[in-house]
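the two lines:
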Amino acid sequence: GQQVMQIPQYQHVQEGEDFTTYCNSSTTLSNIQWYKQRPGGHPVFLIQLVKSGEVKKQKRLTFQFGEAKKNSSLHITATQTTDVGTYFCAGNNRKLIWGLGTSLAVNP
Amino acid sequence: KAGVTQTPRYLIKTRGQQVTLSCSPISGHRSVSWYQQTPGQGLQFLFEYFSETQRNKGNFPGRFSGRQFSNSRSEMNVSTLELGDSALYLCASSLRDGLNYGYTFGSGTRLTVV
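prediction for all of em together
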């Protein structure tokens, strides 16, 4: 069936280091959404990418959508303790297919 | 404006019982989706309702059902509870089409089956 693989599963960084999580879909996607879930919280919508090769920035966060619309990445520059949480991608192929998330831990 | 409200926040039930969870979407949102979240399986889609009609359904057994009312509020019901149903149940609403505009999630109902 349709899958969205997300790697890595876990990432532990020192505050100030960069962080990247990757999503790869087995099928071409109409769009991809990114969510963040803080520990004990619920997913919060961050952004949606629609166009092939699209790049969007939100302060220290950079989101990319691949040319083939089958992969995406989220890059955080100079992580802070407030970035702690699990980052999920969800690909739209007539239904949302969720990755299992990347849990980010940041050492102060 | 108020966010997505889910009640109750926590619930403990015994195997074999049934449970009903409630979700009030953001005012004006007509699309409501339900997800089951467990540590090993991530977010698993249960169903989506739009204007009282089930628009999409995930791969869950018939013990899981839902409905949406004319005011867009939604309920999901799980009958004959099993230990494996222990999870965080999340409701998400969207103004139009969450597939293309994103979802706003509620805080969830943590269900424990003992």
